[in-house]
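We now fix the convention by which a protein and its fold are recorded. These numbers are not coordinates but entries in a learned vocabulary of local backbone shapes. A record is reproduced here so that you can trace the correspondence yourselves:
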Amino acid sequence: MSNNTVKPASKLSELIVSNTEREQVDITQRVTDAPWKMIVVYRGQHCPMCTKQLNALAKMTQDFKDIGVEVVAVSGDSHDQLEAHFEKLDVNFPLYYNLTLEQMTELGLYISEPRSNTETDHPFAEPAIIVLNEQNQVQVLDKSNSPFSRPDMQQLLSGIQYTRENDYPIRGTFS
């Protein structure tokens, strides 16, 4: 990645993480014909709010596909933690793991230490959503420092649809 902190309109060149087969993949690349991509960063399998969000998003995956958005999710969890999380999940989109501290920092995400070893065994990113347009520019960026602050997925869906249908510009580029 070329940016120190990802900002609206910046290009996300690559984000290399691991898939369930333990292969390294660039999750900015499309694997469907959808021109846009939504990357959901979640805290990890220890977070019940994340489990709830991912399961709710699974019910909307087709809605996102219908407006041209491919959906994926990623965390800093290990392969074993991801596998354990699948017991609580009913998702129909790819989940990835091994988001590193360096990547979290480069993305400008908020990072937390676990409260105890029973929570998790590594620092983790707080929730974020990065929506990439056809040019891999950050069209929408939402990040939180708390597990309790997340965008409403229905509102996000309708906002992306409006943006795509009306060639709405990338906002928040003046800093």
